[in-house]
Amino acid sequence: MKKLLALALTALTMLPSGMTAQDKFEASLSCDLVSAYMWRGIHMADICLQPEVTISWKGLSLDATGSTGFSKDDLKDIDITLAYSRWGFNIGVIDYWQNGVDPRDRYFYFSSGNDCPHQLEANIGYTCKYGSIQAYTMFLGHDYKIDGSRAYSTFIELSVPFRAGGLDWDVRAGITPMESSGYSYEEEIITDSGWKRTVTRGEWMYGESFTCNMASIRATKNFEFKKFSLPVYVELHTNPYLRRANLLLGVSIATL
Q1: Contact at 8 Å (CB) between 210 and 178?
Q2: Which of 182, 131, 123 is nearest to 155 (CA)?
Q3: 8 membership: H or E segment, kind and range
Q4: From the first residue on, what is the mean pLDDT of each consecutive set of 10 residues in the chain (256 residues)?
Q5: Do the beta carbons of residue 130 and residue 97 sit within 8 Å?
Q6: Secondary structure letter of residue 4 according to DSSP
C-alpha cells in the first residue's frame, strides 16, 4: 500500500505544472460548532468545536482538523491530511488520533501493534460538478479485526450536491465492502427459562461484512460578510446498518 501510494504521488507530481489551476500559496481558517459530531455513521461526541486550518499550493494541501467537546470526559481528536489533487482526481494520506483514558493515547506514542492510538488511512477519489466518489482504506495503526488480523477497514462514499429552495444541499451515502476493525466482549444475559448465561458479542467500526453504514442529507445557508463567511447547516445523519439517526445543527466561521 505504501509503495502504491508513493508511486501515485510521484506520477501526479510529474505532470506539467502549467496544467494546475492553483499556482499560488493559499491558506484558510475555519471553526465549526456542532450539536453532535457524526463521522461515517458513527456518533463520536455531542456538542463540540471543530477548528481547521489548511495550506495549499499547486494542488498539494496540508490540512489539520481537530474536535474538542465541552466536557472533560469528551474524547479529543486531531486529524492531519496530506493530499494532492489535479483534474478532479485526488490522492492523500490521513493520520487520525483520538485520546482516551489509556496513557498510551499520548499523541507522540507510536507502535506497530493494536495499542497504537494513531490510524493511517489512504484516500483516492474523483470530484466533478455532479458529485464526488471517495475511497478510504486504513493501512497502519489501530486497525485490527476481532480475530487479530489486519482489517484494512475500507469506506467508500458517494456525494451529490444540488441547489434548491435557496439552499445548498448535499446527499451522501457510504458503504463498507468487507469486515472492518472491531472487538469482542462478554455479556451476561437472562434466557427465556430464567437462567443466566454469558455470551460473546462483537462491535465493528463500520460493519461485519458488506453494508451501508451511512446515509445523510445536509442543507446549508451561507451568509457572507466582507472577510468571512458564516455557513449554517442542518443535517440528517443516519446509519442504516445500526438503524440509528441523528439530526444535527452546525455553524461554521470561515475566512474568505
Answers
A1: yes
A2: 123
A3: helix 2-13
A4: 46 47 82 95 93 96 94 84 97 90 71 80 97 96 90 98 96 97 83 76 90 97 89 97 96 89
A5: no
A6: H
Its pTM surpasses 0.90: no
Which residue shows C-alpha cell 474536535? 67
Instruction: Say if residues 125 and 154 touch (Cβ distance below 8 Å).
Output: no
146-155: list long-range contacts, CB under 8 Å, 24+ apart: 146/182, 146/183, 146/184, 146/202, 146/204, 148/114, 151/179, 151/180, 151/181, 151/182, 153/180, 153/181, 153/205, 153/206, 154/178, 154/180, 154/206, 155/40, 155/206, 155/213
Cell numbers describing residue 127: 470530484
Question: Which amino acid, one-letter code, is at 247?
Answer: L
